[in-house]
Amino acid sequence: MTGKPDLPSNAPSHDLFDSDRFHDECGVFGIFGHDDAAAHTALGLHALQHRGQEAAGIVSYDTRQFHAERGLGHVGEHFSSPVVIARLPGHSAIGHNRYSTTGETILRNVQPLFAEFAFGGLAIAHNGNLTNSHTLRRRLVQQGCIFQSTLDTEVIIHLMATSRYHQVVDRLVDALRQVEGAYSLVAMCDGTLIGVRDPMGVRPLVIGEIDGATILASETCALDIIGAKFLRDVEPGELVTIDADGIHSIRPFAAAKSRFCVFEYVYFARPDSVVEGRSVYAARKRIGAELAIESPIDADVVIPVPDSGVPAAMGYAMQAGIPFELGIIRNHYVGRTFIEPGEQIRHLGVKLKHNANRALVAGKRVILVDDSIVRGTTSVKIVEMVRQAGATEVHMRIASPPTTNSCFYGVDTPDRDKLLAANHNLEEMRTFIGVDTLAYVSADGMYRAMGEERRDPDAPAFCDACFTGDYPIALVDHLGGDNVAQLSLLAERGR
Ligand code: AMP
Question: Would you call 186 helix, strand, or coil by DSSP?
């Protein structure tokens, strides 16, 4: 996690643990009861590559012992070799893709984490971000715990180790009752695979089945890649254990209103995934249609910023009755711009990544559609490119509300002072990006695209903190207390 709002002067300092800040935009996968557990896990992680590209790890269990392999880089760089897969025997395995933008991505921070407890070994993989991990970690260090990594996930391990309970699930529940934040966890111990989502279900987690084996995965695209059948989502606040007797479910936390992350639909999840009963692709297309209804403009062609803007641009074009064209071509052999650290590289990355399709753009009034603007770097470059290719007018339409706040729940966003929309009004942004008109979909429009009537300010159906500053889970580390209202106020003031 990166983002930090302006802190009140009495906020605690976190220098101690900031050497490698926590960035957890991740994918998790687990399988129980399959001859090729590790190979299936590698394939599942490959399908979840978009959720994290910096490192990947797999831990398997062969009824006698655990085996672990971790590597920096893409899944395929480490796990496509049969030799590596052969070092991961057993019928159960879990895996993790890691994402980070700054700080070293060092091997000791690559999940799954593994620890030997009084009850035996446990491997754990986490998607999300804990918001009180610094606070808990400080207390645990004072109690004598020795941390091996700078991952927030490791506090769960120590809370389990120091729990007064004996059974693994009891210890895990005891630990999770003390943490705040967003988590979709996959864990594996002797004979059991465990999956759990935080009470608000901010991050996704699904259950699937193949050849009688049970699977847990961040998204359904990880089931599709191996031909597994989707069974159901793990529900918010649900903990499932999977063993030789099947799937067992408990609800160990106080009931909370579900607040799934709407940004998963906007950008993060893969368009071929079905998340919480909605197709990501269809949701993006509907946002584009809402955008066309809210902010129409006379133009000759609708062009997506590939790849993330494609479904929304299609939705916009269909609704507006304007031709859709692939007027910008993306080079797929360059990583996502956002992922390369450093301002200079980011600029270079955008140039390396996109090229205007001159024949489709020259002499045209163009509507460019992207899913979001973060720093504005991509938009500036793309607009310049389209103008150079001869567009007579360029109109920008954004398929999410302005990104005005950092995420503290597992999507890596820059600090607020780097978020374009947090520091500029619409007209300033329009001038900065260099477009003739600029419009974002409204929060109500985005909610309508999700099948809601509008955004209910008293009980929003999603976590939309990045767009509204309404943080549903206490940001304990950042405000030194359980004071969400205070942060929302700060966000409000800074807008
Ligand atoms: P920027 O150039 O900083 O304005 O980034 C905007 C681009 O980054 C858009 O094209 C988005 O598709 C993409 N994007 C938005 N949020 C993220 C994120 N959390 N991680 C990676 N890319 C993102």
Answer: strand
The three-state secondary structure class of 455 is coil
From the CA of 420, give the closest atom in ligand 1. Answer: 4
State how far the Cα of 415 lies from the Cα of 375, in Å rounded to an integer.
Answer: 10
Q: Does domain 281-331+338-465 have CATH number 1.25.40.10?
A: no
Q: Pick the residue with more confidence: 350 or 303?
A: 303
Work out which ligand 1 atom sits closest to the CA atom of 350.
Answer: 2
323 neighbors 295 (Cβ within 8 angstroms)? no
User: How far apart are alpha carbons 261 and 382 in whole angstroms?
Assistant: 28
Q: Is the peptide bond before 414 cis (omega within 30 degrees of 0)?
A: no
Measured from the Cβ of residue 122, the count of other Cβ atoms closer than 10 Å reads 26
| C-alpha radius of gyration, the chain, whole number | 22
What residues line ligand 1, using a CB cutoff of 6 Å?
Answer: 267, 305, 308, 336-338, 370-379, 411-413
| Tokens describing residue 254 | 């106080």
Q: What is the pLDDT of residue 25?
A: 76
374 CA → ligand 1 middle, Å? 6
Distance of CA 415 from the midpoint of ligand 1 (Å):
14
Atom of ligand 1 nearest to the CA of 412: 19
Neighbour-count burial of 147, counting CB atoms closer than 10 A to its CB (0-12 exposed, 13-18 middle, 19+ buried): middle
pLDDT band at 100 (very low <50, low <70, confident <90, very high): low
Q: What rounded mean pLDDT belongs to the chain?
A: 89
Give me the pLDDT at residue 105, please: 67
DSSP state of 228: P
Quick check: 237 and 264 in contact, CB under 8 A?
A: no
Q: Is the peptide bond before 307 cis (omega within 30 degrees of 0)?
A: yes
CA-CA distance, 231 to 213, in Å (whole number)? Answer: 12
- Asked if 26-259 and 281-331+338-465 have one fold, the answer is no
Helix (H, G, I), strand (E, B) or coil at 377: helix
- Residues identified as active-site: 26
The one-letter code for the residue type at 357 is N
Nearest by Cα to 304 from 363, 357, 362 = 357
Give the DSSP letter of residue 266.
I
Bridge partners (DSSP) of residue 278 are: 275
Which residue has a Cα nearest atom 3 of ligand 1? 375
Give CA–CA dist 58/313, Å, rounded. Answer: 37
CA–centroid distance, 413 to ligand 1, in Å, is 9
- Planar angle of CA 494, 485, 418, nearest 5 degrees: 30
pTM reported for the whole predicted model: 0.91
- The yes-or-no verdict on residue 351 having pLDDT over 90 is no
- CATH superfamily of the 26-259 domain: Aminohydrolase, N-terminal nucleophile (Ntn) domain (3.60.20.10)
**Distance separating alpha carbons of residues 116 and 131, to the nearest angstrom:** 26
Tens of pLDDT, residue by residue over 434-447, are 999 999 999 999 99
The domains of the chain are located at 26-259, 281-331+338-465
What's the pLDDT score for residue 332?
83
